[in-house]
UniProtKB/TrEMBL annotation:
Superkingdom classification of source: Eukaryota
Record keywords, A-Z: Aminotransferase, Pyridoxal phosphate, Transferase
Cofactor or coenzyme needed: pyridoxal 5'-phosphate
Domain Aminotransferase class I/classII large, first and last residues per copy: 29-399
The protein, known as: Aspartate aminotransferase
Lineage: Eukaryota, Fungi, Dikarya, Ascomycota, Saccharomycotina
Subunit structure: Homodimer.
Any one Gene Ontology cellular component term annotated for this protein: cytosol
One Gene Ontology MF term: L-aspartate:2-oxoglutarate aminotransferase activity
NCBIfam families in the record: PRK09257.1
Additional record remark: In eukaryotes there are cytoplasmic, mitochondrial and chloroplastic isozymes.
Keyword Transferase recorded: yes
Pfam family, one: Aminotran_1_2
EC top class, as a word: transferase
């Protein structure tokens, strides 16, 4: 035996294990509704046209190189990314009270947020997550030693938002608790609060003096419109003007840069006071962990965000992706209705973003995988992006069989 021979094995990540089983499956009709990555009408990964153009520009640039970025990241990227989420007219940006840092995609931004809270937030060390939430949230916060708790969100009986339970949980949490809010296209349910509900949520958070953390992983995926999908964040920044607001931003999905790991952490402060010191502390996290963030993807995303023609193309790409997903929602719902599959399937159309929380049970999901080679998360979450005109009726028939 050696010094590591007693380390216990832990279960594989459920979603990546699902992907492994899908890849190993030799049945030709197999369908992947697992990991949240966009697929085109033929089920293939999609390099956005705006990204292809941006890559051309970068390669044509005689100054192109692979030098290290600064610790905070690529300055034009940081500025442009803040504007995407906070808005071109953001008062907070104008008043220079936003600290921004390039991160390893959304997960890296959450990790930096977690470390910052752990080290410097003295009011609370408990992070409230929606029930349910993206599974990795628990690990990201617990890994740095923070406690996690949940607030009510999804009402299984009505397949809608449990706004009453949500507001009660905000009320009963210790003042100053940390609340993680999915800014749009909630993962895994695809269910977002209405604007009226958002105002209720934000006002309750304000009343209790909680610390809000917006997780923005799908801006543009919910409605196809960047501004629309940033509404809750921007309303929050206006309304909660006496508390810092943490924003974790990913460009994995909306620019299709999944593997390039491009994201940002933004800390919106009530005033610019002590900004320099805060920046220095955040930079120290990055320096000790990754030294400095990746450059290639940041340069591409910057082109996409800031070159007017590419920006227009990107906004069109977002419409393309969100509309194709929406059409598949409708196609799946209609096919299930046509088959007279027991149950009501309207929630599939009402939900938005990448996912549908189908309401299928664990056993039904298992049956879909073993009998039909249709793969989705055991929670019943389906990545709607995996559907297309070639497989949607097959998936509907498979669900019909599994439900009966
Ligand atoms: N937050 C949520 C809610 C997510 O669904 C995801 C990805 O699935 C992320 C954050 C982070 O993703 P990434 O690190 O790939 O940007």
């Amino acid at each position: 035996p050696h010094v590591f021979s007693t380390i216990p094995e832990i279960p594989a990540d459920a979603l990546f294990a699902l992907k492994g089983r899908y890849t190993a499956d030799t049945r030709s009709q197999k369908v992947d509704l697992g990991i949240g990555a966009y697929r085109d009408a033929n089920g293939k990964p999609w390099v956005l046209p705006s990204v292809r153009e941006a890559e051309k520009l970068i390669h044509e640039d005689p100054e192109y190189n692979h030098e290290y970025l600064a610790i905070s990241g690529f300055a034009p990227f940081i500025g442009a990314s803040a504007k995407v989420i906070l808005g071109d007219e953001s008062k907070a940006i104008e008043e220079q009270r936003v600290v921004s840092l390039q991160t390893l995609s959304g997960t890296g931004a959450l990790h930096i947020a977690a470390r910052f809270i752990k080290k410097f937030y003295t009011q609370s060390q408990t992070v409230y997550l929606s029930q349910p939430t993206w599974g990795n949230h628990f690990q990201v916060f617990e890994t740095v030693g923070l406690k996690t708790a949940t607030y009510k969100y999804w009402d299984d009986a009505t397949k809608s938002l449990d706004i009453k339970g949500y507001l009660q949980d905000i009320e009963s949490a210790e003042p100053g608790s940390i609340f993680v809010l999915h800014s749009c296209a909630h993962n895994p349910t695809g269910l977002d609060p209405t604007r009226e509900q958002w105002v209720q949520i934000l006002e309750a958070i304000k009343r209790k003096g909680h610390l809000p953390l917006f997780d923005s992983a799908y801006q543009g995926f919910a409605s196809g419109d960047l501004k629309n999908d940033a509404w809750a964040v921007q309303r929050g920044v206006e309304l909660l003007n006496e508390t810092p607001i943490l924003i974790c931003q990913s460009f994995a999905k909306n620019v299709g840069m999944y593997g390039e790991r491009i994201g940002a952490f933004h800390l919106v402060l009530p005033s610019a006071e002590n900004k320099k010191a805060i920046t220095s502390q955040l930079q120290a996290f990055t320096r000790s962990e990754i030294s400095n963030p990746p450059s290639y993807g940041a340069k591409i995303v910057t082109k996409v965000l800031t070159v007017p023609a590419l920006r227009a193309q990107w906004e069109q790409d977002l419409v393309t992706m969100s509309q194709r997903i929406y059409k598949q929602r409708v196609a799946l719902r209609d096919a299930l209705v046509a088959l007279k599959t027991p149950g009501n399937w309207d929630h599939i159309v009402q939900q938005q973003g990448m996912f549908s929380f189908t309401g299928l049970t664990k056993a039904q999901v298992q049956r879909l995988e073993t009998e039909h080679a249709v793969y989705l998360a055991s929670s019943g979450r389906a990545s709607v992006a995996g559907l297309n005109d070639h497989n949607v009726s097959y998936v509907a028939k498979s669900i019909d069989e599994a439900v009966r």
